[in-house]
Amino acid sequence: MQKLFDEDFDALELAEGALVLNQAIDPETQADWARAEMQRLLKEAELALVNEHHEQQRFEAFLRLFYQEWGFQGDKDAYFDSANAFVDKVLERRKGIPVSLGSLLLYFGKQLGFPVEGVTFPTQFVVMVRWPEHPVQYVNPFNGEYVSEHTLRAWLVGQKGPFAKLKPNYLKVADHPTVIGRWLALIKSALLREERYALALRCSDLALSFAPDDPYEIRDRGFIYQQLDCHQIASSDYQYFIDQCPEDPAAELLKNQVRAMSQTQVTLH
């Protein structure tokens, strides 16, 4: 299993780091094709914007190019499809979710010289645009539309309840390792939903290379091993979680799972 370290992602653009992650999870990821396609689209953007000299108007033209001419869009029909979190698939299908579309928006935007940064807002990934001597703007990568702080607050209320407040740290620029860590968790959830347990196990192993003693990740790995009929390893992972988090409501349920798997092993022998 390939190990990933924070410094790998700090040195890369977010989309490039995501490709490294994607390939570590699924070796069949078309990483070389994706990089070539990103370069092709970048050259196309440079040619399309060559006559735009006002930077803000140039950025507006870039957004039209990305969402209208290239046809990138949020996948409204199958939001949780794992394909939406693999950069090569997003480039191929022109569909994605905020973080994957946002990573491409940032890749092209930074290469074109725009003042864009990524923000891991609690509800979804957002692209921040900071023009000198102008108020900060936020773009929803899902559809390319600007969102006001009022809208961001409404998103927050929808997730956290009516007393949620828009805290300054919610709008801080996110470092790449943090985004990649959340991206990894998102891919694992999608793969589990699709019952693609072998790839989900790769996600869990990668996550544990960052935090080897995380009881919740070890619990999740136990679930994956259970689905793969590796009951002895699953029992060991569940027991670790039970020992580390005895007060967690899931601990009692997992005790029953461990007992059931132990009885199955005895019956089989």
UniProtKB/TrEMBL annotation:
<dbReference type="InterPro" id="IPR032698">
    <property type="entry name" value="SirB1_N"/>
</dbReference>
<protein>
    <submittedName>
        <fullName>SirB1 family protein</fullName>
    </submittedName>
</protein>
<comment type="similarity">
    <text>Belongs to the UPF0162 family.</text>
</comment>
<dbReference type="Pfam" id="PF13369">
    <property type="entry name" value="Transglut_core2"/>
</dbReference>
<feature type="domain" description="Protein SirB1 N-terminal">
    <location>
        <begin position="34"/>
        <end position="184"/>
    </location>
</feature>
<dbReference type="InterPro" id="IPR011990">
    <property type="entry name" value="TPR-like_helical_dom_sf"/>
</dbReference>
<dbReference type="Pfam" id="PF13371">
    <property type="entry name" value="TPR_9"/>
</dbReference>
